[in-house]
Amino acid sequence: MSEKAPNEARLLPWTGLGGRPCYVVGNGTGRVSQAADKVEAQQLSMALELLDHADDMLADEQTTEIQLRHVSAALTHSLRDVHRGRPESRAQARDPGRLREEHPSGQGLIRLLP
């Protein structure tokens, strides 16, 4: 873990009431920061398992549309969780307009072609 300023705010990998972001202020050595590190590690591990599962489903010609929609929803949820913990997301939470303006697709959206 890198040295942080004593009053640096960290975006936590979970949300509060109403889906609002949660932060902890400190140097990253307290109990809340340690819990956040564990949650982020679990989210990454679960995301990798989910990707393996999705790969298996895509390779199986017997996979139904309903199963694909379910795994797509799970992947979307997982990606949001993992993205929330990224340093860029933490910076965006402190300054919401900064990364959106710089993103090549604008407003943080990426259009996928069929």
Characterization of the model:
- The chain is an alpha+beta fold and 114 residues long.
- Helices cover 56% and strands 12% of the residues.
- The chain has four helices and two strands; from the N terminus they run ββαααα.
- The protein has a two-stranded antiparallel sheet with strand order 1-2.
- A hairpin with a 5-residue loop joins β1 and β2 (21-26).
- α1 packs antiparallel against α2 and α3 packs across α4 (96-102).
- The longest helix is centred in the middle third of the chain and has 29 residues, at 31-59.
- The chain is elongated.
Oligomer: single chain
Please give the alpha-carbon distance between the first and last residues: 41 Å
Rg calculated over all Cα atoms: 17 Å
Secondary-structure-based class equals: alpha+beta
Number of helices: 4
Q: What proportion strand?
A: 5-15%
Please bin the fraction of helical residues.
55-70%
Overall average pLDDT: 77
The SSE string, one letter per element, is EEHHHH
Main beta sheet: strand number and arrangement?
2 strands, antiparallel
Cross-sheet strand order for the largest sheet: 1-2
Coarse morphology? elongated
* Unreliable residue runs: 98-114
